[in-house]
Amino acid sequence: MIALIRYGLAVALHSQRYLPPLLLFTGLLGVLTVSGSGPLPPAYASSAGALFIASTWLTVALLGLDGPSQRAIVTVSAGRSWKVLAGSTATVLLGCLPLLVLGLFFPLWVGAYQVRPVDLLLGAVAQLACALTGTAIGLLCSRSVFRRPGYGLVAALTLVLTALFTPGLPPVNHLFRRMADSADSAALLPVACGMLALAAVLLALAGTVTHHLAARRD
What we know:
By secondary structure, this protein is mainly α. Helices cover 81% and strands 2% of the residues.
């Protein structure tokens, strides 16, 4: 697994496919959190939303790096196709960690927020929940499922917009609404942890479905 992650990181860095999601994330972060003040939960809701969109794009981009022949070689070398998918997923999540840290501390640098340790914990949990959800959507819309990129793009946009704007839909919209309406990070933390657990389940289900569909197509 470590070798697959190292391979995925090397290919991603060489191809520079990570740059568009990174630029999108930093742009959204700058627009949504700059010159803010007051309680941190609304600001961290913006950071989590930016990471949700960026993680979806990053997943689709990284899972589309290898062509069919190269992916077949990697699968044979790994021994199991699910190991390749797990390695790619782990690579995406590792790539999200620097963005999570940036989303955690950038608002503190450019704004005048009231900071407590529980605020930082809430921000980290909320962003991680959104990163897992975005990765799950990215898996379902990747080239492993959609052979034509246009179809995958339409599916990704549909799922992202649904998750963002459907009122009360967990984990993303529900979490955003709670964080936007409350300034008490301690009260919001159990909600965020519940959404994180749900996001982990969604990622596991998305990985299972993606592996099954990819195996049938191959």
